[in-house]
Write a structure and sequence with these properties.
By secondary structure, the chain is of the alpha/beta class. It has 13 helices and 13 strands. It folds into two domains: about 160 residues, Periplasmic binding protein-like II (D-Maltodextrin-Binding Protein, domain 2, 3-Layer(aba) Sandwich); about 110 residues, D-Maltodextrin-Binding Protein, domain 2. About 35% of the residues lie in helices and about 20% in strands. Helix 6 links the parallel strand 8 and strand 9. About 30% of the residues are buried.
Length: about 350
C-alpha cells in the first residue's frame, strides 16, 4: 500500500501512528504487492526445480565401440638372456576394464554435480543406436555420426566433447615394405576393422575419398584381424587407430609402420536429451570441464582416452561429420577372394 493511505488505517484509541510505524507498514504492504509475490513464487519454483533435478536419476548411455584402456607390456626379466637369440618375452598387464573406467568417471561426475547418474552399457552398437532412436537415454556419449543422426531426430543436444584431442585414423603396412605413401598402394586392398567404426573405418574411407585415392575395401571383424592380415602378408595395408595399434605386443607392433594419418575429426559428443533441464546441463558441464583439474580425474581420464579432459561443445562443432555420406562410402565395391587383387606386393 502507498504510504499516503497509511493515514487512513484503523488506529487504536488513544495511540497515534509514528512516522517509523508508518514506514514499516508501507514496507509490509510493498512486500505483499503483486511483484513481490511473483518474485517469491519464482524463487520457490527454482528451489523446487533444483530439488527435483537432484532427486531424479538420469540414464547415461556409452558407445559400446569405444576402445578399451591401453594395456602395458612389461619385459619378462627372467628371459633377458634370450636377447642374444633375438627373442624377448613380454607380460601383458591389463588395466581396469572400459566398463569400470567409465563407471568411475560417471561416479565422479555424479558426486561433483549433485546429479544422480545411472550408467547403462549396451550389448552392441545396434542396441545402443536403437535406444538412441527411441530417446531412451537422458545422456549419452556417442560417436560423431551417431550424434548428427540423432541430434534432430531424437532431440539430443551436445554439451561437451574431448578437449584438443580429435579423432584420427591411420593406415599401416609391414615395416620392411617398400611402400612409403598412399600412392604406392593405390588400387590395392586396404583392410578395415569393421564397417561402422567411425575412427578406424569411416574416417579413413572418407579421407581417402576426399584425396581421390582409389582402393578396394575389405572389412574384417576387428583391429587385431586387420593388423594380422598385413603381418601375415595377405594384404598390403590396413586401417586402424593409434589406440588399437598400442594394444599389440611390442614384437608385432614393431613389424608395422604407419604411412598415413587421417585429418582430425570432431570427437565423440557428450549429449543430453532435450527433456533434461537447463539446471542439470549446467551442473554436468561444470563437472565435466573440472574433471581434468583433480588428481583423480587426471588418473582416470587417460583410461577412457580423454587425456586432456572435456570442454563445452555446441551442435555446430560436428560440421565435418555432417558432410559424410555413409551410403556412398559403403557402395564402393568390396574385395572378393577371386578378384586376384588382395595379395601384398
Amino acid at each position: 500500500m502507498h504510504p499516503f493511505f497509511t493515514s487512513f488505517r484503523k488506529r487504536t484509541p488513544g495511540k497515534s501512528i509514528t512516522s517509523a510505524q508508518a514506514d514499516s507498514a508501507a514496507r509490509r504492504d510493498q512486500a505483499n504487492s503483486l511483484p513481490g509475490r511473483r518474485y517469491i513464487a519464482v524463487l520457490a519454483a527454482l528451489c523446487a526445480l533444483c530439488s527435483v533435478a537432484n532427486a531424479q536419476t538420469l540414464i547415461l548411455g556409452i558407445d559400446p565401440m569405444l576402445p578399451e584402456p591401453t594395456p602395458e607390456y612389461l619385459e619378462d626379466r627372467s628371459e633377458l638372456e634370450q636377447k642374444k637369440f633375438g627373442k624377448v618375452r613380454y607380460e601383458r598387464v591389463e588395466p581396469i576394464s572400459k566398463t569400470k573406467a567409465w563407471n568411475a568417471v560417471i561416479g565422479i561426475l555424479a558426486a561433483d554435480s549433485g546429479i544422480d547418474l545411472l550408467p547403462e552399457h549396451s550389448s552392441s552398437q545396434l542396441d545402443f543406436e536403437l535406444k538412441l532412436a527411441k530417446g531412451h537415454y537422458d545422456l549419452a556419449y556417442m560417436n560423431p555420426l551417431q550424434f548428427v543422426s540423432f541430434n534432430h531426430r531424437s532431440g539430443y543436444k551436445a554439451i561437451a566433447k574431448r578437449k584438443a584431442q580429435p579423432l584420427r585414423g591411420l593406415v599401416v603396412v609391414k615395416a620392411e615394405s617398400q611402400v612409403s605413401n598412399l600412392r604406392d598402394i593405390e588400387g590395392q586392398v586396404i583392410v578395415f576393422p569393421g564397417l561402422l567404426d567411425f575412427q578406424s573405418s569411416i574416417a579413413p574411407r572418407e579421407s581417402l575419398k576426399k584425396l581421390g585415392i582409389a582402393y578396394i575395401p575389405h572389412i574384417l571383424a576387428g583391429p587385431e584381424e586387420a593388423y594380422q592380415s598385413v603381418l601375415s602378408g595377405v594384404f598390403s595395408a590396413a586401417a586402424g587407430t593409434i589406440e588399437s595399434l598400442n594394444t599389440l605386443p611390442p614384437p608385432k607392433r614393431q613389424k608395422l609402420r604407419i604411412i598415413w594419418d587421417t585429418p582430425g575429426y570432431t570427437p565423440h559428443a557428450f549429449a543430453a536429451h532435450t527433456r533434461v533441464s537447463f539446471y542439470v546441463l549446467t551442473r554436468l558441464q561444470k563437472a565435466l570441464v573440472s574433471l581434468i583439474k583433480t588428481d583423480t580425474g587426471k588418473k582416470i581420464l587417460p583410461l577412457i582416452h580423454a587425456r586432456n579432459g572435456f570442454e563445452v561443445a555446441k551442435d555446430s562443432d560436428w560440421h565435418d561429420a555432417r558432410q559424410i555420406d555413409l551410403s556412398a562410402l559403403n557402395s564402393i565395391t568390396p574385395y572378393r577372394k577371386d578378384s586376384g587383387t588382395g595379395s601384398a606386393p
